Amino acid sequence: MDNKGITRNYLQKLCSTLAKNQDTPWVTLLNSQARQSAADRAWQSINRFYQNCRAKISGKKGFPKFKKYSRSVEYKLTGYKLSDNRRKIKFTDGFKAGEFDLWCSQRTIIYYSEQQIRRVRVVRRADGYYCQFLIDVERQENHKPTGQVTGIDLGLKEFYTDSQGNTVDNPRYLRKSEKRLKKAQRRLSKRFRKGPKQSNNYHKQRVKVAKLHLKVSRQRKDKAIKDALALVQSNDLVVYEALKIRNLVKNHKLAKSISDASWYQFTEWLNYFAKIYRIVCVAVPPHFTTQDCSVCSTRVQKSLSTRTHQCPNCKTVLDRDHNAAINILKKRFSAVLGVSPMSD
């Protein structure tokens, strides 16, 4: 880290040095390209840290941490072999892990040639091992034009409110699972014993806690994918706020609720689906979208507890999130076209 001359190639050469070292014989067993993939990920972490430092990002910069154990191994083009029917995968490196069945929809693999499969990653989760395939293919989906445009305001009471006044519920998956999580974590804490080795019961309980966290994570992802896809399929233009989540979670009273909402994951999927369905998806600055009146642009100061927008100038009364969603949509049109979508 202190040596500014370190590059990705230098880290990959270190992998070769470790493979020749008699003190680390297990490195030789791993496929050479898999070793290089580990070096690539280490370099990405180091490079991201330096980029954050140069950008002078407030707070933690993401200093790389040493990880004694890895939960994944990534193969590039060698070290594995797929069966002809794509139902089995065999690992051929020095670890001799053997042949494993692939339990998945065959359409996800069988329609792609071996040349299109660029990487294979084996990942360990709390409930088992998973095989991820990186496939070189340009995905494009047909989008039927709807003539609809919408702006969305992300929130905590409702997951989002659009400029037509429609709302999507915030499921609060972590909050709903907190009772079971607390009970499981208390049991885990009671089974902890001082010493280098823990009991089998401790490790069984540790897996139970990990599975509960994994379930919450999967629920959030599933929700984000379904909501983003529905929004993209029903609109030709989607506008949302470019929220700085890093700054928002500094409010410790709301940090857990903001993290539970998974706004960032939702916007990432929104941009992904917008790209493959070839619609326009734009992020606009969030400044004063809640405070300004969506009809006459009068600035009306509100606290977080004020849930209704009441304009003293034009007497407009709207839900604060609905008012914000209209302002978000107007920001996109005023910046690009110089007109408002609500004007005649």
Task: Describe, in short, the structure shown.
The protein has 344 residues and is an alpha+beta fold.
Oligomeric grouping of the chains? single chain
> Helix share of residues?
40-55%
CATH topology of the largest domain: Nucleotidyltransferase, domain 5
Order of helices and strands: HHHEEEEHEEEEEHHEHHHEEEH
Number of strands: 13
Tell me, what's the shape?
A: globular
Gap from first CA to last CA: 59 Å
Nearest-angstrom radius of gyration? 25 Å
What would CATH call the architecture of the largest domain? 2-Layer Sandwich
How do the strands line up in the largest sheet?
9-8-7-10-11
Number of helices: 10
Approximate strand percentage: 15-25%
Low-confidence runs (pLDDT<50, min 5 residues)?
Answer: none
Main β sheet profile? 5 strands, mixed
How confident overall, as mean pLDDT?
Answer: 88
| Main CATH class of the largest domain | Alpha Beta
Secondary structure class reads alpha+beta
Count of individual domains: 3
GO molecular function: DNA binding
Pfam families: Cas12f1-like_TNB, OrfB_IS605
Protein name: Transposase, IS605 OrfB
Domain Probable transposase IS891/IS1136/IS1341: 132-251
